[in-house]
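Q: Convert this sequence to structure tokens.
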Amino acid sequence: MEIRNLLAEHWPAVKSIYEGIVTGHASFQAFPTDWPGWDSRYLSHSRLVAIEGDRVIGWAALAPVSTRSVYSGVAEVNIYIATGYPGQKAGESLLKALIDSSEMNNIWTLQANIFFEYDAILKMHASIGFRLIGYRERICQTNGVWRDLIVIERRSQKVG
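A:
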């Protein structure tokens, strides 16, 4: 597996992974967007793909948490892995590379909102230095079901 910068040419594979997560169990995104919509949602740096052979098996990108300049060093982590590739360390590899990229781009805090029941994902983040910030109970609905979130963050030891 290789981690590379996510480019526009990867969009069909990224969109395919996105379409696989629109079950409402991994994302709040109700439907995949088009490339311009996706491109405008994420920071121009810190966009990565995990590639196995010639197939994109996962992607990661940072989204700004605010347009206010005081939050310019705070970003939200987004990582998604294609169906059929869990347990192959793609998520961990992407997250570590995303941290490195974020620090090279002056991001001092990474945050993530994770559905309460995803213990393995929470453990993976914790093993890389994320800490619990809090819980958000019944904060959103997916497919008509109220969902709880766990909010985690990682402060850089190199930036900020």
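Residues 2-110 form a domain with the Aminopeptidase fold (CATH 3.40.630.30).
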